[in-house]
């Protein structure tokens, strides 16, 4: 009996952590206590359409998007021709005034990414052409010479 409940629990857990295709994404109007973003409030936020899967990222340079390695781990570099990055959008659909769409020409997953522990869960997308009309996110300054240290 315990084995049966354990197996059912395992299947439920796997079902919860599985990524979902674009058409299965939850309705953003159903997010509890959400506050809609104002147009251009977070222009550097990106929607990544990765051959049927969705992920998020941040524009960190005119041709580079920072994202999570788990978004790209199961994809081959040969798939990049089907990847799209949408910047400065207000909906999961990617539309909106001022939205910019770019293709991807390459991606780099952290060489020490561990899918079991999620250690080093970071990756970089290289866009096929630069985005020059949207400012990238402002990254924190180098803290090596300051009294502020990460623990």
UniProtKB/TrEMBL annotation:
Belongs to the peptidase S1 family. One of its GO terms (molecular function) is serine-type endopeptidase activity. This is Peptidase S1 domain-containing protein. InterPro entries: Peptidase_S1, Peptidase_S1_PA, Peptidase_S1_PA_chymotrypsin, Peptidase_S1A, Trypsin_dom, TRYPSIN_HIS. The keyword Signal applies. The keyword Signal applies. One of its GO terms (biological process) is proteolysis. Residues 1-19 form the signal peptide. It comes from the Eukaryota. Keywords: Disulfide bond, Hydrolase, Protease, Serine protease, Signal. Residues 31-151 form the Peptidase S1 domain. The lineage of its organism: Eukaryota, Metazoa, Ecdysozoa, Arthropoda, Crustacea.
